[in-house]
Amino acid sequence: MTAPAHTYTQQPPARATSALVWLRRDLRCDDHAALYHALRRYPRVYCAFVFDTDILDALPNHGNQRQDRRVEFIHASVLELHDGLQRMAAQSGAPGAGLIVRHGPALPCIVQLAQELGVQEVLVNRDYEPQAIARDQHVAQALHALGIAFSDYKDQVLLDRDEVLTQQGRPYSVFTPYKRAWLQSLDDFQLTPYPVDRYAQHLAPLPGGERLPTLSELGFGPTNLHELPLRTGMSGAQRLLQNFVPRMAAYQEARDYPGRKGVSYLSVHLRFGTVSIRQLARLAAKQAVQGCEGAQAWLSELAWR
User: Fold this and answer.
1) Number of structural domains, the chain?
2) What angle do CA 66, 79, 73 make, to 5 degrees?
3) Which of 5, 65, 216, 265 has its CA 20 to 30 A from that of 43?
4) 171 vs 3, 19, 34, 166, 253, CA distance in Å?
5) Do 217 and 279 have their domain in common?
6) Spatial CB neighbours of 167, under 8 Å, sequence gap ≥ 6
7) What is the pTM of this model?
8) Are 260 and 107 in contact (CB under 8 A)?
9) Are residues 202 and 258 in the same domain?
């Protein structure tokens, strides 16, 4: 599978040997575009996540130890992602892999890490928020100045904005015709998962001295997240999905009644990428073609996001 990257992408040297996958809102190790492309092309691939202080420092602070469910959710999901990478690598005969975690401003953290590891390319999954786009452009420029390539891939959505256009070649401004065009553009290629595990033997061992920071070391304390019916990480997303599949047929009607368990409760998992949008759309599309109105409605919601 291939996916277009933004115009600031720079090709790595012909004899490139190692790459760094920078994970952000894609906290999983299966069906992952950037990770797949890195593992397929490089014999040694590192994975990293940054607890970005440019974001964390802007969160409300009411004492020495702040509390934020989002940060706790991300932290727990990062721990599970580290374990998932370790397990996947070990099963492929490449023990010692895992997730490199940094705490600080994203730009210097990633640039310095890329230099320390001696990689020829940094790969990411595309982010669409203005602040994130600006961040990635600055990171790309800093890396390019050092001769390190930077590539991004479509992963957070099924179809990019420029892949669904009016007959005049412009973006849609009304959802209904956009949804119709989106559904018509959706095909098996867009829904096919990236077979990351096929190349998992290329995951590189962690550098010496690496350890995962605790929530407290990030400056945050525990919340009541564990009391909520919201599981974290990849495993939490899969449990919620398994629970929702038998209820999908009733989704169109049940979603409008707060007292009923009608929705999937997967919004936060989609937000942080602990589940693949392709997996969800495949399940919905399979039932939708069989005339399931609930699946058709849920697929429309996936288009809306």
Assistant:
1) 2
2) 45
3) 5
4) 20, 34, 26, 6, 30
5) no
6) none
7) 0.92
8) no
9) no
